[in-house]
Amino acid sequence: MSNTNKQLLSKGLISNRSTILYDISYRLFGELVRNIELRGLRRNLRYSALRITYEMYLSSMIFVSLITSLVSLLFIILFNEYISEILNRLDFIRDNTMLYVIPLYIFIITFMFMYIYPAILSSSRKNSIEREITDKVCYIAFLSTTNMTLTDIIAEISRTKGAIANDFKRLLYWINIGYDIISALYRLSEESPSYIYRKFLTGLIQSYKAGNITTYLTNMADTLMDENRQRLIKITENMSIINEMYVTILVVFPILSIIMFVIMGMLGFDLSNSINSIDLMRLIVYIVLPILGSIMLLVADSIIKR
């Protein structure tokens, strides 16, 4: 078994296989990255559930960035004249030696993308969990009323779909390899990017210790449903404000502006020699209104997603 596989198993990850990429990169740069700590990367890796250790991922960041920069350098060397001719025509680069700086930029861009990738996954996982948590907690509460054990409930949830189901699959795996339920739940809570989810798991641990999870799950389900109800009420109120803004900005304002400019045109009033009332109406209809409409759609979408 490779060093990568051993570390995966020692961390309690599901897969006991690693890709060749992770294995090679860890062999090359594993010792180098041991004392390197990038801000937030370890936490984002834990929250993203990428199933890889910090040292392995950082090694792969360096390895992949190095490979992409070397490939770009080789491409520049092989097609130097052709690339230079194209860039000179477009007036991008005057000096051909500047081409050889491109691999450095590619290295930096690749490294930064891989650096923020776990944060993107973490944010996506957080949103997925918080969308599902009310339904899943209600289902767990229902299962607890049927006198199922917590292990059986975990197994049942793991057979469903979604981010929480994937978490419960990992939870079931940890239990099967020797973790007790409390340790597995505690570990899962530490790897959750969602505060609400962590709070739920922590309460589940405490109620399991007390020996009565049904009461806790029922109360938690009621609490989450009440919070969802309050959130929907707030969204509805905000949408009513957005509706009024929409009518004012995209209906009343254009009509009044067009009437005003028509009257100005009839009176022969122009703002300058180059801009007349007809041009201003075209500006509002073809440029200002689409921009304002796009802004209103983005605002409405952000409110609904919250």
Assign a percent range to the helix content.
Answer: over 70%
Order of helices and strands: HHHHHHHHHHHH
Number of helical runs?
Answer: 12
Residue-averaged pLDDT: 81
The N- and C-terminal alpha carbons lie at a distance of: 46 Å
Structural class: mainly alpha
User: Major β-sheet, in short?
Assistant: none
Oligomer: single chain
Number of strands: 0
Strand-helix topology:
Layout: H1 3-10, H2 20-29, H3 41-48, H4 54-78, H5 80-89, H6 102-144, H7 150-158, H8 163-176, H9 181-190, H10 195-210, H11 213-266, H12 277-305
Structure write-up:
With 306 residues, the chain is mainly alpha-helical. It folds into three domains: 3-125, no CATH class; 127-224; 225-305, no CATH class. Helix content is 77%, strand content 0%. The protein has helices at 3-10, 20-29, 41-48, 54-78, 80-89, 102-144, 150-158, 163-176, 181-190, 195-210, 213-266, 277-305. Helix 4 (54-78) runs antiparallel to helix 6 (102-144) and helix 6 packs across helix 11 (213-266). The protein is flat.
Task: Please summarize what this structure is.
The protein is mainly α and 306 residues long. The protein is built from 12 helices and no strands.
Task: Please name the defining characteristics of this protein.
306 residues, mainly alpha, 77% helix, 0% strand, disordered N terminus
